Structures are given as C-alpha cells and as structure tokens.
UniProtKB/TrEMBL annotation:
One GO MF term: chorismate mutase activity
Lineage summary: Bacteria, Pseudomonadati, Pseudomonadota, Alphaproteobacteria, Sphingomonadales
Top EC class of this enzyme: isomerase
InterPro entries, sorted: Chorismate_II_sf, Chorismate_mutase-related, CM_bact, CM_dom_sf, CM_II_prokaryot
EC number: 5.4.99.5
Entry keywords, A to Z: Isomerase
Pfam families listed in its UniProt record: CM_2
Cross-referenced SMART domains: CM_2 (SM00830)
Record protein name field: chorismate mutase
Source organism of the structure: Sphingomonas mollis
C-alpha cells in the first residue's frame, strides 16, 4: 500500500507532468507563429533578428517573472534560448 507521503508526491508529480505537457504545447504554438514570422521576413527582405524587439521582450518578461515570483535571470535565459532558436530558423529560411 502506498504511504500518504508517497500519494502527496504522486500528486505533485502529476501536476508537474501536466504543466510540462502544457509548456510543450505552448512552445509548439509559439514556434508555429514564429515560423510564419520568418516566412514573412524572408518574403519582404527583413532581417532575421530585431535586437530592439528582443530587448523589449526580455525586459517585459523579466518584469512578468518578478511579478510572478520567478527568478528574472532564469526567465531571461529561457527566453534568450527561445529567441536564439527562432533567429536561427529565420536565418535558415533566408539562406
């Protein structure tokens, strides 16, 4: 028989699994949109990166992270990883 503490842990893990699944689906949707952005940029001769937009997004996400009591350094690293991947995809579309 499962101990009560193990049942609590099981519940936490189920919540984590659900959140991870939601994150994957949200990232998939985000990348679908950024692929469309990349095609638009390639079609119209726009550069793959927009440093001003990136900095505004990072500042906005750092503020949201602070408000959500999430480490803003972590959120910036996470967003930077995503932005770098998007730029890589956009550059590849223009090659």
């Amino acid at each position: 028989m499962t101990e009560p503490a193990d049942q609590v842990l099981q519940g936490y893990r189920q919540s984590i699994d659900n959140i991870d699944a939601a994150l994957v689906h949200m990232l998939a949707e985000r990348f679908k949109v950024t692929q469309a952005v990349g095609r638009h940029k390639a079609t119209h001769g726009l550069p793959p990166a927009d440093p001003g937009r990136e900095e505004r997004q990072i500042a906005r996400l750092r503020q949201l992270a602070t408000e959500a009591q999430l480490d803003p350094e972590f959120s910036e690293k996470f967003l930077r990883f995503i932005i770098d991947e998007v730029i890589r995809h956009h550059a590849r579309m223009q090659a």
